[in-house]
Amino acid sequence: MTSLNGFWDFGFVGELEEYKGIEQVVFNTSLPVPGCFDLEPGLKLRRGIGAYRTRVVTGGKVTLRFEGLGPRAEIYWDGKNIGSYDLPFSNAEYRFDAGNEEEHTLIVAVDNRADDTKSSLFPGFYDFYRHGGIYRGVSIERTPEVEISYLKVIPRDIQKGTVEVTVELLGNIPAETTVEFSFDGKNSVSEKLVNGKGTFTLSVPDFKLWSCEEPNLHTLTSRIPGAEKCVTFGMRTIETREGQFFLNGKAVKLLGYNRHDCHPDFGYAMPEMLVKRDLEIIKAQGCNFIRGCHYPQSETVLNWCDKLGMLFWEESLGWGNGEENLVNETFRSRQREQTRLMARKSINHPCIILQGFMNELRSDLEPGLTLIRELAQILKEEDGSRPVTYACNIPFDDIALQEVDVVSFNIYPGWYINSQMSDVQQFDEAGLIKALEKYETILERPELKDKPFIISEIGGAALPGWHGDVRWTEEYQADLATTIFKHVLDTPRCSGVAIWMFCDTRSFNDYRIPSRPRGFNNKGLMDEYRRPKMAWNAVAKFLKNR
Ligand code: ADA
After folding, report:
1. Is the separation of the CB atoms in 413 and 420 below 8 Å?
2. Is the separation of the CB atoms in 147 and 99 below 8 Å?
3. What is the pLDDT of residues 50-87, one digit of tens each?
4. Atom 9 (ligand 1): residue with closest C-alpha?
5. Helix/strand/coil for 422
């Protein structure tokens, strides 16, 4: 596999010009890949086609891989269109004949203009910025005759140290193939694949459990003649019963934040050092949980969560999708495709203890209910070892909570009016608790009573440096956040919280501007440069002293 990361030629056609096709682009500069072109000087927050070009020496059958880009792109090889990319943030593969062994030209024309068609997964109005760029790594490899395309490891018995391993081959598949496995580079065992597939129960020698405190990892290497694949995994189990989560058989409460994998200077092309630092400061505060809002995550994020022992909720891309999307068959099939891709790419990460989809979809409507069923079914087919959920913002009207394993509510008492509190200006602790208890009555329904409940979003904004005792001040946010953590810890029926949110995040600067001062969603307990607001320090103190 050859990484194509590095400097690519770049040309831009702004949205005020008519875009006539890739031939029109003048490649007059260079930009880094991964990167977001609309954060470059001169192009900051501009909309249009950003075309990236590189040269690759290869030939014959190849596989080109993207770890994630957005919002959409057309891909050209030697001037010929070899595919479209329309699942923002998803990993994608393009298999094609590269031609003769020589230098070829690869162009990725990223389009960050608004696509407000009903089938779009990333339309104009989401509350996080639609950056244009190649967010994550790109690589290419010659496609072997037969390859190990999938290797899944599901921990089954953490007393005995057994895992269920599934292997899939792709290419010119023989009727029978011998596959050799080794854990941590030793102790080989052989098994037989029939028609390129097989599932086996294997024992991990000298295994150590993965937990938040001791995140031990193992590797599994699989080999067939001419191909090899190695994955990292952790020995841990995650179960839901009696309204709680059990990690390795022990009840665990999830305490943490929603985090956008985003930065004002890098967009979604987050440098690894910053990712690691974010996770470390969340952990150092005393938290154990992150909801990766609102799209499939990078390997960088998930690898570091594995390494640091951070529990993670991964979800497919969605934001408040209404009936117009939910009845659109292309939208639905894109959701299904993205959800399946996400489950398969992330299958071996021990950090993922919850899988979700479609933040705040209209779960009060029949097409919402049927899509929830379909997506939950896909996650169960691909995995089955992790609980499934979705973040619901209409708890009293929702008709689909029974379809998933975990009940998750996005609720904003103390911030948005209509959130079971009147329009408070000064912090009202008793009112907040009363409002939370009202939501919690929903959990008394018989069909929900054994499901864990988490508050998947809650919080309020503070403008950094704005002080006083009313809404929008750092003091108000600090009181709100500490009261919420306290309530979650004091309430056995509540199995966790992801505060909205870790740090301020760029949002749309058009018609959302009245509620998004500075062009940012300001509900972070840190600002966008990860400088703590009062609430961050107040929560840290509270969690240390509990
Ligand atoms: C929602 C949504 C978030 C964010 C938040 C807010 O519930 O899921 O993405 O927009 O509200 O800040 O209003």
Report:
1. yes
2. no
3. 999 999 999 999 999 999 999 999 999 999 999 999 99
4. 127
5. coil
